[in-house]
Amino acid sequence: MSIDVLVIVNNSELSEETLNTAWQAAQSIFKNYGIEVYVIPYYNPRSLRTVVVVNNVEYIINRRLSVREFIDLILSSSMIREEVQKESVAIGITFNDKDPLSDAVAVT
Prior knowledge:
Blueprint: E1 2-9, H1 13-33, E2 36-43, E3 50-54, E4 57-61, H2 67-78, E5 92-95, E6 104-107
Parallel strand pairs: 1-2
Antiparallel strand pairs: 1-3, 3-4, 5-6
Helix pairs in contact: 1-2
C-alpha cells in the first residue's frame, strides 16, 4: 500500500513549513508502519492558500501542523474510500489559463 500526498505550495512561509512537515510525516509513517508515502510538491505562486490533497480529499491548511497531526491526517485520509478505489493507470495535470477561477485540474 502506498499513499500519495499532493502539497500545493505558494510563496508563503506556511506552505514551505507544510511541505517540510509532510516529508517528516512520510518518513515517520514508513519507519513506524512500513507504508510508503509519496509527497508530491506542486508549486503554484498564484495560489492564495496552502492545500494538501490525500486520497482525493482536499485540506486547506491555515496553521502550522505538527508532525503528529500530519501523520494522523495522512493515515485517517488514507482509509477514506479505500475499498472503492481502483488502481490508477495514469495521472496528469492540465492547466487552464483562460479561466481565472481554476489554476489546474488533476486528471486520473
